[in-house]
Amino acid sequence: MQSLRKIKPFRWGIELVLITIFQFISFSNVMLDAGDFSGKFFMIFAVFFAVEWAYTLLMRIFLKQTSFELEFIAFFLSSIGLSLVATLDTDFFESGDLDSPYYSGRQLMFIVAGLIGFIVLRWVIANADRVSKLRLPVAALSGLMLAANILLGEENNGARNWITFGGFSIQPSELVKVLFIFVGAATLDKLQTTRSIVKYMIYSIGCIGALFIMRDFGSAVVFFVTFLIITFMRSGDFRAIVLICIAAAVGALLIISFKPYVAGRFANYRHIWDDPYGAGMQQTRVLIYSASGGLFGLGLGKGMLRGTFAATTDLIFGMICEEYGLIIGFAVIVCFAAIVVYTVAGARGSRSSFYAIAACAASGLLLVQVALNVFGVTDLLPLTGVTLPFISRGGSSLICCWMLMAFIKSIDPRAYPKTLKETQALG
Question: ∠ CA 45-50-51 to the nearest 5 degrees?
């Protein structure tokens, strides 16, 4: 209880102004570079500012919330992604392609949808009884989503993980990440039995197996590491984790032996310079152009990497380093490290083990995904094609990331002023 009394008020006003200044500079550079097409972006950026400020003020005034660290990190990262995606639209407009997909408008829509998902999920998990009742329906929903993906999915870059309808594409495996953590944390929160752990293992094997069927190996790795985090948070048994990892390694070797195309996906690892104009083109371009940006970048819209396939999705970290500069690239990495520190610091004081497990799993998932993206495009790890959270272009991933933040936010008593007041009174 003493630690709760030492929580210092978050100076949200100053931080919000500083973030807004950075965003204003970024958005202004995009509009200046757009020239005659700047009007197309004015409304998008104005709506972003309105949503950001309205959320903060409404939560502060009506819910008396005093902590906005996580939200500000999410808004900061999302604004970087929105700026880079908008410059891609500028390229389309300048080339005369006025029928382009208008990516920045969609990106803004997904940011707003993600924020709504964040708010809704915070309300859902605020009540422990509600979480317990929803555990089985959520597990069933995740199974149905993955099954639909297998049956209806379309292959994209070797993975069958997209479903398209009405002009929009969704990636169910991204949204299932949220459900996966919900089910795992809720199952192992109160049901501390071997039977419950076995049930969750079966559920996890089913989810990861579905991802292998879809050839979505990047997501499979993310799910597996998340499963390890949740299992360890409940059991604390290193030996069990080691045995699970050994079994997974054996399974992976068997899959590679019987499915040669899987090995083919990783054949380029550590050999990108052997074929810089072919199989290694994407990653060699990332390394060259990232370094060319220097500390302060070439300026938004002025980079060369944008002409490479998947520049605003899988390779967007390279665009950040090239156009924003290595300082901002490093700041992005620090943001995700800060999320982990925030989680570790708050997990001990969480209201129940559900919140601690869910928060650690969510922050661990984000960290693993960042590592796979950044180290993958720079050839330190095999390229798996996962997105950079909050920044890469795309809706499913962006919505998922915002909703994952709801799990992390749940461990902070300052996010629930009434709970904090009652807890301090008891202390």
Answer: 100
SS3 386: coil
Return the DSSP state at 296: T
**Token representation of residue 164:** 């398209």
> Contact, 310 vs 334, CB < 8 A?
no
Query: Distance between CA atoms of 394 and 387, rounded to whole angstroms?
Result: 9
The bridge status of strand 168-170 relative to strand 159-165 is antiparallel
**Cβ atoms 303, 289 nearer than 8 A:** yes
Beta bridge partners of 159: 156
Q: What tokens does 152 get?
A: 């209806």
* Predicted structure pTM score: 0.90
* Euclidean distance between CA atoms 352 and 256, whole angstroms: 41
Query: Are the C-beta atoms of residues 349 and 409 closer than 8 Å to each other?
Result: no
Note whether 323 and 297 are within 8 A (CB).
Answer: yes
* Alpha carbon distances (Å) from 288 to 272, 281, 293, 329, 378: 12, 11, 9, 15, 10
Residue 162 has φ and ψ, to the nearest 5°, of -125, 140
407 has a pLDDT exceeding 60: yes
Query: Domain locations in the chain?
Result: 2-426
Tell me what pLDDT residue 5 has. 43
Residue 234's identity, in one-letter code, is R
CA distance 272 to 278: 9
